[in-house]
Amino acid sequence: MKLQIKSKNGIAINSTTPDWRNYAPPQNPDKHWQNGHSAKELAKSVFDNKTFIPKIESILKRFSIPVPDEMHGVPEMATKLIWGTRGNRKHDLFLIDNRASMVIGIEAKADESFDKPIKNKRANAKKNADGGANMSTRLDGMLNYLYDGNPPKNREDLMYQLLSATAGVIIEANKRGIKKACIVFLVFYSNQLSQSKIAKNEADWCTFCKTINLDKDGGIVEIQGVECLIIKEQIDI
Q1: Which pLDDT tens digit goes with each residue over 91-133?
Q2: 94: phi > 0 → left, psi -120 to 50 → alpha, else beta; which?
Q3: Pairwise CA distance, residues 173 & 81, whole Å
Q4: Which of 46, 103, 106, 193 could join 52 via S-S bond, C-beta 3.0 to 4.6 A?
Q5: Per-residue pLDDT at 28
Q6: Cβ(157)–Cβ(163) below 8 Å
Q7: CA-to-CA separations, 227 to 142, 176, 181, in angstroms, rounded
Q8: What is d(CA 38, CA 52) in angstroms, rounded to the nearest whole number?
Q9: Spatial separation of the C-alpha atoms in residues 135 and 114, rounded to whole Å
Q10: Cα gap 42→37, rounded to integer Å
Q11: What b/e readout covers 200-218, taking b as 16+ CB neighbours within 10 angstroms?
Q12: Which residues contact 227 (CB under 8 A, 6 or more apart)?
């Protein structure tokens, strides 16, 4: 599988540094563009360590999904969450195959959390000028979208990023008329990272999987007419 990466402005990205760092940096790059942080480790896995493409190919083959001959990637690509205002969310890397038959959203992690639980997002948003109304609209819309109007009883304990990344990929697939999607939570692991944070992420992942009838190894489910492979994978660094 060949992979071509361009910035959201169409600038070709052919290296970790300077290209990815300059043309598609994460938010607050002075803090997050560091070895051991997911943004830089994702870029390194593509250009320096050459581990990214083999990992994606192995995931697709495991689930008998044809491997595209070429994919186009956009780092930090924003997809619009369709509830409330200010609803864009950024994917660490978003891939579209050359035949426009599949999209793959990459959510990279080292030992960073999957953001906050839904209940915390609601509570924090109450400090906003609207008293949290916009955030509640977004959260409730996202939950109803992913769970077809029947969100789980433990919905408030689910981690925001697991939900928003999944919803964003499915929304973008439907927007493009594409009915196959992959959501890959790609963990860059080192024993130098916080093992307690990594264990917390694993527990949060398992809780999320149970709500969509998957085991911790992930699998394929249909959400909003899109056949989705949802999986968490690891690359050692």
Answers
A1: 999 999 988 899 999 999 999 999 999 999 999 999 999 999 9
A2: beta
A3: 12
A4: 46
A5: 85
A6: no
A7: 18, 14, 6
A8: 13
A9: 17
A10: 9
A11: ebeebbebbbebbebeeeb
A12: 179, 180, 181, 220, 221
The residue behind tokens 């990815």 is 20
Q: Tokens 């919905």 label which residue?
A: 155
Q: How far apart, in whole angstroms, are the C-alpha atoms of residue 196 and residue 17?
A: 31
Q: Residue with structure tokens 């038959």? A: 101
Structure tokens at 115: 């953001």
Cα(104)–Cα(233) distance, integer angstroms: 14
Report the C-alpha gap between 226 and 44 in whole angstroms: 31
- Tokens 């083999």 locate to 54
pLDDT digits (tens, 9 = 90+) for 155-174: 999 999 999 999 999 999 99
